[in-house]
Protein 1
Amino acid sequence: MTSKLLHRGSHEAQDELEIILSQAYSTFQAQLSASYLSTVPPAQRGPLTQALLYAILIQPQGGGGAGASSATSSSATSLINQLTTITTDGYAAFVGLLLRLVNDSYAKLLEHPRGQIIWLLKQLIEFYATDVDNLCLLLLRQIMLEVLTTKISWVTSNHGLLTSAVYTYLRLLPDHSMAKNSSVNELRQAEIKFCASMIREHFQECLGIGRDLIRLLQDVSSIAEFDAIWRDLLANPASFRVPSFTDIGQLYVVKTHTRYFQSRLTPEMEAQIKFMLTHVRMGSQRRYQGWFTQRFLSTPESETLVCDLIRYVCCVHHPSNQILQSDILPRWALIGWLLKCCKSNHVEANAKLALLYDWLFFVPKTDNIMNIEPGILVMFQSIPKYVDMTNSLLEFLFLLMEHYDPPRKELLHRGVAASVEILVGKGVVRNLEPLATAPAIALPLREKLSQL
Amino acid sequence: MATMLKVRDLRPSVGNNINTTFIILEKYNASRSDGGILMCIALVADSTASVHLQMWGAECDAFQPSDIVRLTNGIFSFHKANLVLRAGKKGLLEKIGEFSMVFVEIPNMSTMQWVQDPTNPKGWIPLTHSSPAPTGPMLAGAASSNPGRH
């Protein structure tokens, strides 16, 4: 029997979900063509929901786009209305079916059902259906991956796109692994495969991402494919077949372009952060921070956004001298707030790393003092009221210097020394005295400071 | 084109000619009026001052903190003992944006003291440290923590 939903190879068994949906459709087909459904007994709701989904997906030229107003297009609409009348769970079951279909079989979906899914998504958004945001995200990821893998030669010839895709996937994969929805597994595997193969086969281009590539690769190092990449990066750099690449230390000194950091923020986030750092006076930021948190940082999954925000604030948003000399909210104060938004230790550590990352590898010729200025000011300005923050950051800095990359300790020490030298030299701080003499700062930390 | 008023320049009046733009800072719990209609108060502000906005019916759910709102043909007058800004029957509240507006919370035009304008029987003057000592009757029921000059 020909499938109306999915491509099916000549020796391929029919998809399980498709069987369920089409059988439900056969059972209830007569009832669906009636203009309304009589009261549905609870036991029938499940199969009827399945039937409705199948019916909508195969509905010819039904509700395919804005302005469709023929008699056939109203059929898809009337089917959705029927769904509404029998729904008692906020469309949860219906969206659940869609999630399963998109997750398992997106690549095999025929053209027409694909179009219907987009139309359905828009309807479900209007209904504020349960889990519709997950459906939207899942579709986005599927579509993105499909475009990238089916047009792979175009992607690899477009270096900007390639590197952005790698950066984005590396950044998102740890978040996806934390997601409770384990059905996302297959999609995730495909993304991992794509990303790893891009790195191995187009390493020269990926090198252009710079030092933040290392930072991102660390967060996925528990994934088998990336663990293998790590081993080769450290012990076998020649395997990447880029003659000029002989040591991972070469990547440390390449500054990551601001466009990568910018890509992690939505335009709205960026607008709000910029507004706070340009128009809001120091002391008046409390309400704005509350609104921003409520909008963008209110779910446990969104916590990792803090790291992206800190990279953005340090590396992309450099206030003018005029702003620096005014009473406008300074970057260090915003970052202090962002650090406090971290609930889990893991995210907090990543956030501190995001703040201090450029310190470790600072090269005066190519790096920008504005990237490291917020770090020192958070430390200074937190004394004495929030001196725990200063202690915590100093401790973390020294930990990084010793343990981030032990064989290349020297490089990191040089980077931090260069950072301190330029911060004092250009007058961002007069000297390290306040840190070195504050009694509230732990003695071992003060001793280490004097050695800098 | 109607003139836009700054919140600081609001004066109690029975007229419905207030045009102003502000950002919503906080919404307080809604309650039902005697007629059973949903009513709530919000603290709103612009770069010059804050004021209490009174919302009715569907308005209560339509606006949230951080919304930037434009009021056209509104009223700034007494409702029971409270001096509030509202749309009234002929006015309109419209959301025009979010977040990106600077504001101050002091002074609050709803909670400050007002005195009658000695030169104009229908007029009111806000009592601030720079205004002269009151010679007319004080506003009955005006909520204020510090009567008299500051």
Note: The beta strands of chain B are 18-27, 31-32, 38-45, 50-56, 67-79, 82-86, 92-98, 114-116, 124-126.
Protein 2
Amino acid sequence: NGSKSVVRTLRPEAFKSMIPTIPVTNMVCFFAVSHSQITRLYSRFTSLDKGENGTLSREDFQRIPELAINPLGDRIINAFFPEGEDQVNFRGFMRTLAHFRPIEDNEKNKDPTASEPLNSRTNKLLFAFQLYDLDRDDKISRDELLQVLRMMVGVNISDEQLGSIADRTIQEADQNGDNSISFNEFIKVGNLQHINVWAGDHYLILSYILLSVLQD
Amino acid sequence: YFLLNFNPFDNLLCILLGISFTVWFTLLLVFIIVPAIFGVSFGIRQLYMKTLLKIFEVSVNHLSVCTAIIAKEPTSLEEEIKEIRRSGSNRDLDHASEFEMSDIFYFCRQGVESIMDDEVTKRFSAEELESWNLLTRSNYNFQHISLRLTVLWGLGVVIRYGFLLPLRVTLAFTGVGLLVVLTSIIGFLPNGRMKNFLSEQVHLMCYRICVRALTAIITYHDSENKPKNGGICVANHTSPIDVIILASDGCYAMVGQIHGGLMGVIQKSMVKACPHIWFERSEVKDRHLVAKRLSDHVEDKTKLPILIFPEGTCINNTSVMMFKKGSFEIGSTVYPVAIKYDPRFGDAFWNSSQFGMVNYLLRMMSSWAIVCSVWYLPPMTREEGEDAVQFANRVKAAIARQGGLVDLLWDGGLKRGKVKDTFKEEQQKLYSKMLVGTQEDRSRS
């Protein structure tokens, strides 16, 4: 099957109603990636939207079995919903997914010892930080750390053991002695600032959206 | 004078109608029904399929899409978390701490990837085609259609709805009608070889007419492995048409729930001619009863092989989902069959939440054709030390491999129900082992 030319186009009317303030053409010319990848994700959005009202609820996410069995599934789903709301539209959907833009090929070819553009990496780290920091006070307290640990291990580790793991982690990370982990301390732990979140060659991620320009 | 003037025209019209009707009917009989009775084929359908393919190639080839979002190799939880830790940390990993804050990235990434694309939810809706096949229903995103294509599409609509659909509906009614009538008649015969023989012939004939009613072009492979008496035939399930496809090439005892209405009439008359296994709605829940009836049937070597679809629900023919272990506990020989449809001519998947049965059949009969391949796989039996679940998975893997389908462990019941918490607990257990396991090593050294 030779030709891979992409002809799929998004019906402009449908797309525009999702993102009323940004014309489709503007969004496309911001991105080095083709139209098709955005439409692919829009197609995914509509297939998840069983109620067909242009927004996703938490139940729509929980219908994905692989997400429902993820120990941190609920927290990840929460990340899509802004404070106090329980519906997310396509714009919000894309904005959250934009955190996971992989490092581009042309960036990889640069000197590997040079530091990555802080933006993209920082966004990912912030996303992970906010999974821990539920009350958004920019600090991960011992309780918050324990909560996430408990979600990841289930019933298999006792409270005492988990507590000591949490204490040890905070001890290693905490630098200013306030017994909690701030964002700066978070990224220094285990050299997270150099972490390769998409971990290497055996991963081929073919398309994500580049909507980091959709800022509020 | 008026009467005299109109009469000749009326007569002419009547005569013309009469002639065309007769011609039509004769053609139908000769080219379709008679071959069905005797199980021969003129090759008309194959010719039709080749013509269609040519037309698709010539006109629609340039419309294709890229479909992948995420491609990855399967690795385990432990490997991936270690990989993440390695890429971040420059510390000596022999003294790896039991927990790293970066571990959260593993679950984060799995979660986000499953939001972008997951293996399960897409199995419950029709497969997306790579290029358009001139049917309105599969044109979801192909906007750039030239005039030529539109004309072709219009022509297609006329042919399909004006000619093919009425023809197929007539055949369907003929097939089903004959089945009901003839099996009821055979029911009056005394039990014996004559009755079995006639029943087989009648079933085969009627299913063949139904096959032509759907313009199903089926290629059977490895017919030497066809299911024999006293065995159980298992196949992957895409639609009710699977039954017609398999039963037109061999005789099976069907298993299922008694329905009301037309379906119930058909079921009741079929069981007069040969022993099918129909359950009342209340009996379906009782697993022991079901197992008992099935094992009683297979023990009787004169009875036909049972046809079962262990997935329990229709899947969209891109994958094979979990096989329910019930049929694999019975302990007889299992004859696996793989069915793969070619979606270019018409998607056979029945999305029962979207269409009812009648709607679905009309869609089938107004597609171009139903093209599929059937592979009869060599018989399998349960091995020593293998339990029913492992046996079921082995059979499933064989079917998936032959049919070119993805082998999934997920339950087809996820179409309607929620996933069990045990899967989440498994992941938690694996991760805990990673954390605590390190501690045990530490305390040992």
Note: DSSP finds twelve helices and three strands in chain A.
